[in-house]
Structure formats: C-alpha cells, structure tokens
Design brief:
The protein has about 425 residues and is α/β, with parallel strands linked by helices. The chain is built from 16 helices and 14 strands. The strands form three sheets. The chain has a six-stranded parallel β-sheet, sandwiched between helices. A six-stranded parallel β-sheet has the order 11-10-9-12-13-14. Strands 7-8 form a two-stranded parallel ribbon. Helix 1 links the parallel strand 1 and strand 2. Helix 9 packs parallel to helix 12. The structure holds nicotinamide-adenine-dinucleotide (NAD). The site of nicotinamide-adenine-dinucleotide (NAD) has 25 residues, from helix 1.
C-alpha cells in the first residue's frame, strides 16, 4: 500500500518506520527544514531506541521516502496519517493539513488522524470534506506509544483503535495493519483491533492520559503527606498497587508530570467539557494539582537551601521530562532549572540524552554526573534515570562541598547509604 505520514516527530516517524517495516511504501512529510535535513542524511531528529537503525534501513531499502511538502507525500496515497503537533485550545493547524490532503489524495483515500485531538475533530473534518466533491474518508486512530519505547510500541501495540463511521476507512486501515496483526499473531501477542465511533476514539485517548495523570497527581500529594507523617511513598504505592484493581504502574511519585502529552491532554479534556457547558471538577483538579506542584518547587528548593546554609553552585541530574528520552518539552526538571537560573543561582547540569540547545543561558552542561556535582553544595535529582543510581557515593561526597545537600525527587538512592557517606540526603516522599 502507498501510505503518507504527515509529521516526523515521535509519533509520525515511529509510525512511518513501522509501516515501512510492514512492507508498505511510505512517504513521510516533515515541515521543519532542520528535521528534514537530518532525516535525509539518515539521522533521526528524535532520540528513541532503535529508530536510527530503522531509519537508515528504510532509506536504504527505499521503503521510506521523505518530503518537505504534503502534496508530494500525499500524491496517490491510499492512506494518510496525520501526526503533527497539536495544542489544547484549537485544531486549526491539523485541519489545515487535512485540507491540503483532501485536495491531493485520490478518490477513496482515507485520512487517519494520529495526533491527539479534542472530541469532535473527526466530525469537523467530515464537514470539511463534504464541502468538496471528493470521496475521502476519515478515521481517528489514537496513538498510545510511550516515549523511550516509541518504535517498539508501534511494532507491538497494546491495542489498535479505529474511530470511524466509514466502511471504506475500516477496510483500508485493516489492510494497513493486517501485516502487523499477522506478525504479532505468529509471536502469540496479537493486539485487539477495535472499531468504534470517532468521538469514542478521540475521548479514549484523552481519558487514558487523564487517568495516568490522575494517578501521578494523587501519588505526588500522598508523597508530600508521607514526608510530613513519617511514611515512605514507595512502600505506600507498592502496597496500594498490589490490589489488582489498582495495579502498580504510574504510582511513582516525583516532581510533577510533564512532556508534550499528559499536561496538554488533561487541559484538552477540560476545555472540551467547558465548551459544551459541563463542569470538569475532577479533571481540573488533576491538572491544577500538577501545575501547582511545578510552580512551587523552585521556591521550596530555595528555602531548603537557605535552611541548611548551602551557598554557591547547585548541581542537577536529569533534565528531560522522564528517563530514557531526549525530550525536554514541558519538562519539570527544565522549568525548575530555568526558574533557579533566573533567580541568580549558578547551575551545573547533567543529562545523558537531553538536547542541550534548549538550556537557559548561563547553565553549564556537564559531561557526566560527577563533573556536574563537582564544587556544588546542593544536588537535585530530578529524573528517574536508573543509570544515575550507579554513581559512586564516596566519589560524590568528594566531588561536592559542604553541606552536601541532596534533594532526590525520584528516590534513586538508599537514604542510609547516603547518610553513612556523609551526605545530607533528603528524598521526596520519605519522612
Ligand atoms: N510524543 C508522544 O509520546 C505521543 C504519544 C501519543 C500521541 N501523541 C500526539 O501525537 C501528536 C504528535 O506528537 P509528537 O510527540 O510526535 O510531536 P512532535 O513535535 O515530535 O512531532 C510533530 C512533527 O510534526 C511536524 N509538523 C507540524 N506541522 C506540520 C505540517 N503542517 N506538515 C508537516 N509536518 C508538520 C513538526 O515539525 C514535528 O516534527 C500530538 O498530537 C501528540 O499529542 C504524542
């Protein structure tokens, strides 16, 4: 099948490469000249495991072709995935992409939206199509991949959801995914392919992310309570998660969730509710709890620093919004670093993957964790990267200067070991 993919970010590039691996002829369009130049040179603009190798393979085999404009990518495509950036307030950019696609696609083609959109977007697109004479069909196919596992989760999705009212769209998407279903069936892990109403598919994506966000917002507030009452949040979460109705995922307390999805998708649900005159008390609480937490963190850290009399440089480990990704979009670690730098602190940071061009001026990026800690009186651990837990604690003591205050927002270390090494170790959620 000839398939077009618009947008070559985490979702678009992973989708394009996955479709190419399934034997389809894929034409991927990317508007950013910088990203397109990288892709054309066989270099992935996103840091995801396996994606660089898959990109080079697809380019060599000719199963992936790159384009700078939608028209050439969409030309004669039977199916076109839209995977462009979206924002919570409006979907005009996505509908503009779709408008060009409608003009170029052949009759009978299907537009499948993968970007996360507000409920009602498919209906708007259908209206847009009806204004033309083109028999083009619409589906919403939510993407559930996790960054850090993007390509792997495209290859082995937990479910394939197709929200559509059109039989043609059902057939075309089934044809596109048939090789994936077959491959996974042979491996004994065939995902369910679910056909549903467009609005159900749209809301299923937003609801999934809101539920994940809700767990984090709640566990973060319980972590604060543990800090005041002598509990240990990991013990609490571990025990609660043993209930099969609850489960243990997304119960890891931290500095507040970030990234390009969870914060935006919660707000998107809130805006969607308000637009139809509904109150969204629980939804708003999830969003506000997190925003408030992120807002308060820099001043809490300043206060802690003053309490122990730490002066001079502050080291930071972890910048991306979570471990194993280079993505700094809406990263709590990055916003904290930015706010502390604006307050005049001298910061020396380490992150194995994050792209450094987004760092605020005056913040020093170091090549390894101990270099970042050298000469600092305070260290902030803000990303849950297990590689950091392997740092030699004695060497850390030697690198830092008194009072050697460590604030670990993700509890990578054993408090007893840190105290025995002479470090003033404080962990979020441990009283
Ligand atoms: N990142 C995730 O983990 C994830 C998971 C599920 C869903 N989503 C959703 O998927 C969508 C894309 O997310 P992402 O993380 O891949 O974003 P991204 O910013 O990494 O990628 C989007 C890409 O689209 C390109 N683009 C924008 N407008 C374009 C246009 N008119 N023509 C061609 N290219 C264009 C951008 O330059 C960018 O490279 C969003 O709606 C997001 O909410 C993301």
């Amino acid at each position: 099948m000839k398939i077009a993919v618009i947008g070559a970010g985490y979702v678009g590039l992973s989708t394009a490469l996955n479709m190419a691996e399934l034997g389809h002829e894929v034409h991927c369009c990317e508007v950013s000249e910088e990203r397109l130049a990288l892709l054309t040179a066989g270099r992935s603009p996103i840091g995801e495991p396996g994606i660089q190798e898959a990109l080079q393979r697809a380019l060599q085999e000719g199963s992936l072709q790159l384009h700078g404009d939608i028209r050439s990518a969409a030309h004669e495509s039977e199916l076109l995935f839209i995977a462009v950036t979206t924002v919570e307030q409006y979907n005009a950019p996505l509908l503009a992409v779709a408008q060009v696609a409608i003009e170029v696609l052949p009759a009978g083609a299907v537009i499948a939206i993968k970007s996360t959109v507000p409920p009602g977007t498919c209906a708007l697109l259908q209206k847009q199509i009806r204004k033309t004479d083109k028999p083009v069909y619409v589906a919403f196919c939510p993407e559930f991949l996790r960054q850090g596992h993007a390509l792997e989760e495209c290859r082995r999705p937990s479910r394939i959801v197709v929200g559509t009212e059109d039989e043609v769209a059902r057939e075309v998407l089934h044809k596109a995914y048939a090789p994936l279903l077959e491959r996974n069936r042979s491996a004994g892990c065939e995902p369910p392919m679910i056909f549903c109403r467009p609005s159900s598919a749209e809301l299923s994506k937003l609801t999934s992310n809101l539920l994940l966000a809700a767990r984090i917002s709640i566990i973060n507030e319980v972590a604060d309570l543990c800090g005041r009452t002598g509990g240990d949040i990991d013990e609490v979460a571990g025990i609660a998660g043993m209930d099969a109705r609850i489960g243990s995922d997304y119960l890891r307390a931290g500095p507040g969730f970030g990234g390009s999805c969870l914060p935006k998708d919660g707000r998107m649900l809130s805006v969607a509710s308000a637009e139809v005159g509904l109150q969204s008390i629980a939804i708003d609480a999830v969003v506000h709890s997190n925003e408030d937490r992120i807002e308060r963190l820099p001043s809490q850290l300043q206060q802690l620093r003053a309490e122990v009399g730490a002066t001079g440089a502050v080291a930071v480990w972890g910048l991306s919004f979570k471990a194993d990704t280079d993505d700094l979009r809406h990263s709590t670690a990055l916003s904290t670093v930015t706010r502390l730098a604006e307050a005049g602190l001298s910061l020396q940071v380490y992150d194995a993957l994050a792209r450094h061009e987004l760092l605020p001026a005056g913040v020093r990026r170091e090549k390894d964790p101990l270099s970042a800690a050298r000469g600092a009186s305070m260290l902030l651990v803000l990303t849950d990267s297990q590689a950091l837990a392997a740092v030699d604690v004695q060497a850390l003591h030697e690198a830092m200067v008194a009072p050697r205050l460590i604030y670990d927002a993700v509890r990578l270390f054993d408090g007893a070991v840190m105290h025995a090494a002479g470090l003033d170790y404080r962990a979020l959620g441990r009283g």
